Amino acid sequence: MSTAAPTKPTTTTAGGYDVARPQGQCAICHQAILPTTKYVAALSETPAGFQRVDYCTNCWSPGFTSEASIIAFWQTLMPRPEQKKKVFVDDTVLCELFERLGTVTEPQKLSFRFVLGLILMRKRLVLYESTRIDHEREIWQVRMKGRDDMLDLLDPKLDQAQIHEVSQQLGEILHQEL
């Protein structure tokens, strides 16, 4: 898989994530993705953090999702340059991202997943069931709305400043205010 060459500046978040806005071109064929054209945006994990990569529908392959670096993807329309930013991921993508981050162990990613879980709880897409203590760590048992299987959500005991920082990271990654 080829990565997109940055054609627009990236935004560096307080937590150190560099997240590009839509590139306007396909990461594989490098053809322009014109405004109002369908394309696939993917969130991949790199050693530097999360990166957004855009693909035209002709180059996108469902097999990309088996690559370890892609943790979420969605189909959307390339915005017009003058168009206001819109939420470009739906609740299904957020839920898939939450589940795919279920095995992370790095503190930043655990914090990211925890705040994403709180957002999904607020939206009533993730339901809290119970809490268990495991080696002095508080682990919430949650489940996705409409499903019975339980998921673990580690409470990293973030303070308000850390929650705010991770919320800003999520907002910048998702291109919306949370």
How would the global form be characterised?
elongated
Rg, alpha carbons: 17 Å
Question: How is the main sheet built?
Answer: 3 strands, antiparallel
**Which oligomeric state applies?**
single chain
Mean pLDDT: 79
**Fraction of residues in β-strands:** 25-35%
Secondary structure class reads: alpha+beta
Number of helices: 3
Poorly predicted tracts of residues: 1-19
The CA-CA distance between the termini, in Å, is 31 Å
Order of H and E elements:
EEEEEHHEEEH
Q: Give the strand line-up of the largest sheet.
A: 4-3-5
Q: Approximately how much helix is present in the residues? A: 10-25%
Task: Tell me about this structure.
With 178 residues, the chain is α+β, with helices and mostly antiparallel strands. It is built from three helices and eight strands, in the order βββββααβββα. It has helices at 91-100, 107-122, 160-174; strands at 10-12, 18-20, 38-46, 49-56, 70-77, 126-134, 137-144, 150-154. The strands form three sheets. The chain has a three-stranded antiparallel β-sheet with strand order 4-3-5. A hairpin with a 5-residue loop joins strand 7 (137-144) and strand 8 (150-154). The protein is elongated, with a radius of gyration of 17 Å. Mean pLDDT is 79; it is low at 1-19.
